[in-house]
Amino acid sequence: MFLLFAKLFRFRIRKHRNVIAFFHPYCNAGGGGERVLWCAINAMQKKFGEKYRYVVYSGDVDVTPQKILQKAKDCFDIEVIDNNLQFIYLRTRPWLESSNYPYLTLLLQNLAGLLVGVEALFRYNPHVFIDTMGYPFTLPLFRLLLTLISVQYFFFPFKYRIG
Q1: Is 127's pLDDT higher than 90?
Q2: In the chain, N or C terminus with fewer CB closer than 10 Å?
């Protein structure tokens, strides 16, 4: 445990400036959350141009960046410029699958999200961290331990009963 905190402290010092990172392990899925991700990157690229570099933490290890961006273009008609975009591939993404946890599924998936977040941190330490998937334990990991600017996008579907 001490070694983990020692490494975290070291990474705290080696922060990459002018880098905005998006934590989205399923960035190639083609759903509504992915639309939010690609719209956000597209809007930032249009507003800030080359001022920032962008990183996407992806668990789609078998898909090239070109194919991911082409799917975003085909599904959402969103064109993302790739000259200031980098993909960091996360090998621990299979831990997030609900099929791994027949009991206490949400709790264990959220804890797995923390571990995948630790891998993301060790692979690349950005200046700004945006979690567009909504894993609740990644925000304290990046914000409190590393004092990064951290943002989290939450999408909660609600079930209403009328009548």
Answers
A1: no
A2: C
Greatest Cα pair distance in the chain: 57
- Which pair of structure tokens corresponds to residue 128? 């700004």
- What are the backbone dihedrals phi and psi of residue 133, each rounded to the nearest 5 degrees, phi first? -105, -25
- pLDDT tens sequence across 2-51: 555 556 555 554 667 899 999 999 999 988 889 999 999 999 999 998 99
Instruction: For domain 25-152, give its CATH number from 3.40.50, 3.40.1800, 3.30.160, 3.30.460.
Output: 3.40.50
The DSSP symbol for 90 reads: -
d(CA 21, CA 158): 29
CA dihedral 125, 127, 128, 130 (to 10 degrees): -10
Beta strands at 53-58 and 149-152: parallel, antiparallel or unpaired = unpaired
Predicted confidence band at 146 (pLDDT cuts at 50, 70, 90)?
low
